[in-house]
Design goal:
With about 550 residues, the chain is α/β, with parallel strands linked by helices. The chain is built from 19 helices and 18 strands. It has an eleven-stranded mixed β-sheet with strand order 7-6-5-4-3-2-1-8-9-10-11. The termini are far apart.
Length: about 550
């Protein structure tokens, strides 16, 4: 069949991926599979010439060709020649094969990897999580056992070049953190997270998703080196136009749900007659009103959910909004994990920083509850010096630790803030310390991305600094009464306090509860300058412990 396009403007609507459902044959019957209905129909497989015609039609207009199904490795005799032909004719295209892994062997993996094909293997974690939804037809046998047996038989190092695809459902959310750890231990370096395409995300499930993603982030930080992939859109229209799907019988659809459910009213062309761009525009236009304005953070395939809801007579707008809420949570978690990976890579490349595990040469023998970390010296080994100072505090006796970061210019020094925040969090967790991270910076001096990093890592900023010493302790209550919602108590080093000066301080801190009842203020600190009076510091520490 010879394919053609009815307009030269198709690139304006198809900026992303051509998904080729190579065959509708599959040995599995996964509960959440969006292609399940297609797999039940009469068995069909595209010919090599069909695949070539579709790719020739859209090459230069899409960046990626994804082979799916069904199970594409059941049509390996078409898949591999098609891949080789695409590589000859269109070497710039990115190629991907999505497989359940049951038919993946060393020969197939090696041949596809040689052609620079990204191989994505569906694996939802350990046996219990994976086999809950991923099942053989007939229900006999463990899919987990079958897939992991195949993967373990691959040559050493192969898994590092493969990608694990995890599909989260409401039932598997509690195991999400364990799933990440399992995949890392198994040998994967890349993990892509999907959702059950047709899950209805209730408020309860969204809360569970938020907890699960927090667990995933903690596990990712603990193990490092596992990269999560995201396909979040960047504009209101980009999410609509990411994928065009070719069915096993040579028809084009605007989304996989329309292809799998055989929604003929949504067919936009075929290999014989080409693609009807006007029809494609009308399908997009009819669905656009249901897309939330802030959907750019959503990873959910919008059209799939929209047209699935219509096919089962559900409210499509509600179905889309449910998916977008879950997608926003996932996108923000993925963005946060990628930001953390970038920071960890910077630390790893810093020639002065050293590895995370080594213990410091210098540590305080006495308990050191807090330390101030000035930033912005410009020295090439500044990050290593900051680490030494943080370790000096973290390795000292006592559980509670506070690090106060004081940059000259918060924006210019933010890479230092990121590095020390992330390092200190990991080290405090290893040492079983309760860590508070403070950044002396106004919110207005930070970008939205920087503020998000601080929030994700519990770094408090934008607080009022109430600095005092022997001569102005009597003004502490008045200043506290006019402070903002967060206030850091900072004790200056201005010599030893006399008994009468300590008496004034005792009087001031005894009034903290009364002042705080009238004006709620969260007290931070104390920030103790080097050379402070230890008796004054103890009075302040006792007062803070009492009001907390």
């Amino acid at each position: 069949m010879r394919a053609r396009v009815r307009t030269t403007a198709i690139h304006a609507l198809l900026p992303g991926t051509l998904q080729i459902n190579l065959t509708n044959r599959c040995g599995l019957d996964c509960v959440y599979c969006s292609s399940r209905a297609m797999n039940a129909r009469r068995k069909r497989t595209l010919l090599l010439e069909d695949v070539s015609a579709a790719v020739d039609l859209l090459a230069g207009k899409v960046a990626t060709v994804k082979f799916s199904g069904g199970e594409p490795l059941l049509a390996y005799d078409v898949l591999l020649p098609a891949v080789r032909r695409i590589r000859r004719r269109h070497p710039g295209l990115s190629l991907m094969v999505a497989t359940n892994g049951v038919r993946l062997d060393a020969g197939k993996a090696a041949a596809l990897l040689r052609e620079r094909v990204r191989i994505a293997v569906s694996l939802d974690g350990g046996r219990a999580a994976n086999d809950l939804h991923r099942r053989f037809k007939g229900g006999v046998g463990s899919v987990f056992d079958a897939v992991t047996t195949r993967l373990r038989a691959l040559p050493r190092g192969s898994l590092e070049r493969l990608e694990a695809v995890v599909t989260l459902t409401g039932k598997t959310l509690p195991a999400a953190g364990d799933t990440v750890a399992f995949l890392k231990d198994f040998g994967f370096k890349s993990v892509s997270v999907n959702f059950d395409l047709f899950e209805v995300w209730t408020a309860e499930k969204l809360r569970a998703l938020s907890r699960a993603l927090a667990a995933v982030r903690r596990r990712c930080l603990a193990i490092s080196g596992v990269f999560f992939e995201s396909n979040a859109g960047s504009s209101r229209s980009s999410q609509l136009t990411r994928v065009l799907v070719l069915s096993p019988d040579g028809r084009f659809f605007p989304c996989n749900a329309a292809c799998a459910l055989d929604l003929r009213g949504l067919q936009v062309g075929d290999l014989e007659r080409g693609i009807d761009l006007g029809r494609l525009r009308r399908i997009y236009g009819s669905a656009l009103a249901a897309l939330p304005e802030d959907h750019a953070y959503s990873l959910y395939p919008f059209l799939d959910r929209y047209h699935y809801a219509r096919s089962i007579r559900r409210d499509p707008a509600a179905m889309v909004e449910s998916g977008c809420r879950a997608g926003r949570l996932l996108a923000r978690a993925v963005d946060g994990m990628k930001a953390e990976e970038r920071v960890l890579e910077r630390l790893d490349k810093d020639p002065h920083f050293g590895d995370f595990g080594h213990e410091p040469r210098y540590r305080s023998k006495d308990e050191l509850a807090s330390i101030r970390l000035p930033m912005g010296s410009g020295l090439p080994d500044e990050l290593a010096r900051l680490r030494q100072a943080a370790d000096f505090c973290l390795y000292s006796p006592g559980r509670g630790k506070t690090l106060l970061m004081v940059p000259k210019d918060p924006k210019a020094s933010f890479q230092l803030v990121e590095g020390i925040s992330l390092y200190s969090r990991l080290k405090a967790r290893k040492l079983k310390k309760d860590l508070s991270l403070l950044l002396q910076a106004d919110a207005s001096s930070l970008s939205a991305e920087q503020a998000r990093f601080l929030k994700d890592h519990g770094v408090l900023h934008g607080f009022t600094v109430l600095s005092f010493g022997r001569t102005d302790a009597a003004s502490l209550l008045r200043r506290l009464a006019s402070a903002g919602p967060l206030a850091l108590l900072a004790l200056r080093a201005d010599g030893l306090w006399s008994d009468s000066e300590l008496g004034v301080l005792h009087t001031m801190v005894a009034e903290f509860p009364r002042v705080l009842r009238r004006r709620p203020v969260s007290l931070l600190g104390p920030d103790l300058a080097w050379g402070h009076d230890p008796r004054a510091a103890q009075v302040l520490a006792d007062a803070l412990e009492a009001v907390r």
